[in-house]
Amino acid sequence: MKIALAYNLKPTSVPAWDDTYAEWDDLETIEAVRDALAADHEVVLVEADARVESRIVQAAPDLIFNMAEGWHGAWREAQLPALLEHLKIPFTGSSARTLALGLDKAATKRVLRQHGLPTPDGVVMHQPDQACDLSSFPLMVKPLYEGSSKGIWGESVVSNPVDLRRQVRRVLERYEQPALVETFLPGREFTVALLGNGVHVEVLPVVEIRFSALHREAVPIYSYEAKWLWDTPARPLDIFHCPAEIDAALAEQLAALCRRAFRALECRDWCRIDVRLDACGAPAILEMNPLPGILPHADSHSCFPQAAAQAGMTYTDLIRRVVALACERYELSG
């Protein structure tokens, strides 16, 4: 089968502290996915830039392996899938609708609550001096339409109205989009990787984010600093623990919650879901990631491959599984 690997290549000239292209993939990841696909298929690389349509038409693939994060705007992750749906070309992962929904954190929260799923209370703020209906601090301030921890820094957790206004202003000015302000949950944090479709959704071993690995003064969140600045190959943070040390009851609760969320957003093939416990130990969904990151090496601390490894899968096995799930959906012979 001929597979086109669609991607956005992260510029190498951008300094690490600049989060503009944090969602895009580096060459090492693109080549790792290409090599995994090439074990079974003919592979062509397609950069998802302004010429992507002509490149795809020329390549004439049987399937697109979609890693593309899109170009600009609040629904950028949906841009390539929308084009592929228009061209009637099969692709891995979720639909344009689901990817657009997943990147809009407020819309995601509305859908989750419509399905009776817990998520922290939140309000969208368009102005720094806008009234905030959330009654108690601390609060979490983040951009409404970002992923990969973009716009989430240590200062994003605020404990008073002055800091709240300051962080909302920072989001408005830096990211040119509204801020989502949420109740900050003080408990443990987990990320849950899922593979499957419909009623057949497998929950991989749960990953815990251990904030004790951060320096003493750090706020206990998986911020941009923690993900991209402090955790380096030269000085890796021992921040992920998989499988998480949790009792059977919590494991079952997380699995059931995430399966329901997967179906509520109509995810396809794969998704990663971030969950945090409140002060009473009850889990709530922070974010949905229907286009999950898949950095190839263990020292890169990429949650989905780590969870897959604990489930007995190699990196190539994981990529094969996603392709197989997509082929099954489209009734393609892979």
Short description:
With 334 residues, this protein is of the alpha+beta class.
Describe this protein with a few key phrases.
single chain, 334 residues, alpha+beta, Rossmann fold, Dna Ligase, domain 1, D-amino Acid Aminotransferase, Chain A, domain 1, 4-stranded antiparallel β-sheet, 10 helices, 20% strand, cell wall biogenesis/degradation, D-alanine--D-alanine ligase
Task: Tell me what you see in this structure.
The protein has 10 helices and 13 strands. With 334 residues, it is an alpha+beta fold. The protein folds into 3 domains: 2-93, Rossmann fold, CATH 3.40.50.20; 121-183, Dna Ligase, domain 1, CATH 3.30.1490; 186-330, D-amino Acid Aminotransferase, Chain A, domain 1 (2-Layer Sandwich), CATH 3.30.470. The strands form 3 sheets. Strands 8, 9, 10, 11, 12 and 13 form a 6-stranded antiparallel β-sheet that branches. Strands 4-7-5-6 form a 4-stranded antiparallel β-sheet, with helices on both faces. Strand 12 (269-277) and strand 13 (283-289) form a beta hairpin. The longest helix has 17 residues, at 248-264. This is D-alanine--D-alanine ligase. It is found in: Cytoplasm. Belongs to the D-alanine--D-alanine ligase family.
